């Protein structure tokens, strides 16, 4: 037996939760399916830019009341060099555990039917249907795919034209420190970078992005090697391995979804994967989820392809700039030039942060698309 609904959302992260909230508030019957059974940490996220804070405010969520730590500056460390740059606007640090739970709670208040701890085993894009772990089938007039960097069988991202090996993302919790107050700290090294910021409980969120070919000997060996290359990072870690960490392989930075599946809205990382050093991932999730939902409300499932094409177009330049920064930070010569340039013209750092933002799509295509 297949249950049919107006809208199905797969994935309970920021993108999926925001899409479900917008749909439910407009009176649409919507179910949100999330494989996680309760509060959990996520490999990516933790930094809330000014645009993400504003988007949360639109939902009636004050990140600072959730415990978010204010961030005003970016600290860059690479090859023995160190500099600090002002961010263009105030940002904040908040764990995904806290953020996601707040958004799931808001979705429940809006009337979303939330089914947690249920794995979606496969999807049929032609039918806009999904099969759950117990064999149950659900079908939606529209399907909002918000599985983050995880692939869903039947709707996996098309990476045939992706030109490089995807990266690996690793996250751990480290002891915090007073010198991290008000700062997001980025450590640059060959093939990748690591970011640290204070979370609401005073611990430090540690996120590492690195080329997959550096992972040949395993995560502990990789982190040990990076600590040798980045002594300031080794000091942060007191020369020790984290007690535990989460990892995800196959992160295709710079990838954008093409508009080729009717009735399916790819949102968050399923729509555009921006390099995490740009700090725009959560804002993209929030904006894409809200925008896709508004497109559906205005034109129904038929506008999905128009909306996806517009989102792809709008994400092209920000992702290209973020990719240029990521590749520049990954090599010693370009990294040195980047550090020298930012030291001489600090305002370029703020401009780069602004240029990697993705605005929400305006009306376009055959129907209004939000």
Shape: globular
Strand order of the largest sheet: 3-5-4-11-12-13-10-14
What share of the residues does DSSP label as strand, in percent?
Answer: 25-35%
Structural class: alpha/beta
Q: What is the count of helical runs? A: 9
Q: How would you name the CATH homologous superfamily of the domain at 2-42 and 96-160 and 253-333 and 345-355?
A: FAD/NAD(P)-binding domain
Mean pLDDT: 91
Question: What labels describe this entry?
Answer:
globular; FAD/NAD(P)-binding domain; alpha/beta; 370 residues; 27% strand; eight-stranded mixed β-sheet; 9 helices
General description of the model:
The structure is a single chain. This protein is an alpha/beta fold and 370 residues long. The chain has a domain at 2-42 and 96-160 and 253-333 and 345-355: FAD/NAD(P)-binding domain (3-Layer(bba) Sandwich), CATH 3.50.50. It has nine helices and 15 strands. It has helices at residues 14-25, 50-58, 96-110, 219-229, 231-236, 281-299, 304-330, 332-344, 347-355, and strands at residues 2-10, 30-34, 47-48, 69-78, 81-93, 113-116, 120-124, 129-132, 137-145, 167-174, 182-189, 192-198, 204-211, 246-251, 264-266. The protein has an eight-stranded mixed β-sheet. Strands 1, 2, 6, 7, 8, 9 and 15 form a seven-stranded mixed β-sheet that branches. Helix 6 (281-299) packs antiparallel against helix 7. The longest helix is centred in the last third of the chain and has 27 residues, at 304-330. The radius of gyration is 20 Å and the shape is globular. It starts with a strand and ends in a 15-residue tail after the last helix.
């Amino acid at each position: 037996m297949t249950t049919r609904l107006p809208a199905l959302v797969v994935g309970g992260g920021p993108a999926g939760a925001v899409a479900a909230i917008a749909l439910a508030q407009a009176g649409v019957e919507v179910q949100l399916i999330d494989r996680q059974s309760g509060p959990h940490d996520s490999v990516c996220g933790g930094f809330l830019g000014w645009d993400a804070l504003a988007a949360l405010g639109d939902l009636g969520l004050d990140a600072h009341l959730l415990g978010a730590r204010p961030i005003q500056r970016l600290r860059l460390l690479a090859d023995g060099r160190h500099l600090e740059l002002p961010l263009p606007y105030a940002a904040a640090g908040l764990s995904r555990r806290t953020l996601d739970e707040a958004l799931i709670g808001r979705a429940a208040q809006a009337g979303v039917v939330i089914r947690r701890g249920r794995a979606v085993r496969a999807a049929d894009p032609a039918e806009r249907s999904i099969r759950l772990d117990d064999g149950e089938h659900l079908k939606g007039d529209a399907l909002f795919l918000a599985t983050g960097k995880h692939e869903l069988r039947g709707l996996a991202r098309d990476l045939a034209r992706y030109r490089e090996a995807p990266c690996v993302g690793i996250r751990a919790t480290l002891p915090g420190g007073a010198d991290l107050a008000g700062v997001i700290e980025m450590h640059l090294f060959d093939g990748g970078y690591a970011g640290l910021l204070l979370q609401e409980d005073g611990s430090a969120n540690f996120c590492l992005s690195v080329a997959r070919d550096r992972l040949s000997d395993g995560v502990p060996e990789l982190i040990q090697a990076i600590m040798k290359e980045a002594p300031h990072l080794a000091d942060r870690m007191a020369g020790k391995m984290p007690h535990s960490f989460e990892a995800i392989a196959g992160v295709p930075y710079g990838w954008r979804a093409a508009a080729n599946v009717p009735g399916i809205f790819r949102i968050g990382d399923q729509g555009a994967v921006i390099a995490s050093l740009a700090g725009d991932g959560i804002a993209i999730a929030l904006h894409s989820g809200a925008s896709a939902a508004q497109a559906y409300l205005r034109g129904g499932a038929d506008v999905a392809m128009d909306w996806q094409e517009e989102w792809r177009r709008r994400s092209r330049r920000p992702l290209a700039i973020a990719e240029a920064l990521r590749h520049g930070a990954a090599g010693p010569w370009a990294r040195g030039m980047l550090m020298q340039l930012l030291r001489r013209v600090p305002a370029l750092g703020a401009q780069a942060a602004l240029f990697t933002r993705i605005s929400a799509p305006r009306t376009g295509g055959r129907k209004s698309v939000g």
